[in-house]
């Protein structure tokens, strides 16, 4: 079930912050009323596509921060695995230099509640609980507004890396809508014209962009 328009699921979990410190009680609630959040899931530490995404978010971090947006990553690895990966140089497959928080969802409850866990729990014929699928997170990206509501999400399968620039574009769109009360048409980017959410406004926009 989609989380769009709903409160983002709450959690308290361990995380690595500033690339070097483990905290046991990290929560997105610290941002409510203050910042939007781009909360993203990735499958596993020490893999191949994942570091390209994590480092790409770091490269754009100043752009997100300029917009008063927090970036937070999450996978089902342990906080110790996160810390080891964060301490490994890039030329050795690590993500050294990443400073935004990375959450450890060891119990897989966060991924499950956000609808990105790659499978589900079931029972076999003997009545034993089993996991069907792959018990790690898909590449889910969630844009959460200052009130804690999910306003945008996209979920990619394991081999499909996400577009960080589009995550930034959606931040711009959300902030534009909230500031100006207009809506953003197809392929909208910062600096382009938006339109009024009325029949007349749509007709006017289409007449000048046909």
Automatic annotation (TrEMBL):
Residues forming the catalytic site: 50
Family, as annotated: Belongs to the peroxiredoxin family. AhpC/Prx1 subfamily.
Keywords, in A-Z order: Cytoplasm, Disulfide bond, Oxidoreductase, Peroxidase, Redox-active center
InterPro entries listed in its UniProt record: AhpC/TSA, Peroxiredoxin, Peroxiredoxin_AhpC-typ, Peroxiredoxin_C, Thioredoxin-like_sf, Thioredoxin_domain
Location of this chain's protein in the cell: Cytoplasm
Alphabetical list of SUPFAM superfamilies matching this protein: Thioredoxin-like
Name of the protein: Thioredoxin peroxidase
Gene3D superfamilies: Glutaredoxin
Pfam family, one: AhpC-TSA
Source organism (scientific name): Rhodocytophaga rosea
GO biological process: cell redox homeostasis; cellular response to stress; hydrogen peroxide catabolic process; response to oxidative stress
Domain Thioredoxin: 2-176
Gene Ontology cellular-component terms listed: cytosol
Function: Thiol-specific peroxidase that catalyzes the reduction of hydrogen peroxide and organic hydroperoxides to water and alcohols, respectively. Plays a role in cell protection against oxidative stress by detoxifying peroxides.
Gene Ontology molecular-function annotations: thioredoxin peroxidase activity
């Amino acid at each position: 079930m989609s989380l769009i328009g709903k409160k983002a699921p709450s959690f308290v979990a361990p995380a690595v912050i500033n690339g070097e410190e483990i905290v046991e009680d990290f929560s997105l609630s610290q941002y409510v009323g203050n910042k939007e959040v781009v909360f993203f899931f990735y499958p596993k530490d020490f893999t191949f596509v994942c570091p390209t995404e994590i480092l790409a978010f770091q490269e754009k971090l100043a752009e997100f921060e300029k917009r008063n947006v927090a970036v937070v990553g999450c996978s089902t690895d342990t906080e110790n695995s996160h810390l080891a990966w964060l301490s490994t140089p890039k030329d050795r497959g690590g993500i050294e230099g990443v400073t935004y928080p990375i959450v450890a969802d060891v119990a897989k409850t966060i991924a499950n509640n956000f609808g990105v866990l790659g499978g589900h729990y079931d029972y076999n014929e003997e009545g034993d609980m089993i996991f069907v699928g792959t018990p790690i997170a898909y590449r889910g990206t969630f844009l959460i507004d200052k009130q804690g509501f999910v306003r945008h999400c996209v979920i990619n399968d394991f081999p499909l890396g996400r577009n960080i620039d589009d995550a930034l574009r959606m931040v711009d769109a959300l902030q534009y809508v909230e500031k100006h009360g207009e809506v953003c048409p197809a392929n909208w980017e910062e600096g382009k014209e938006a339109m009024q959410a009325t029949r007349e406004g749509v007709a006017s926009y289409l007449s000048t962009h046909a």
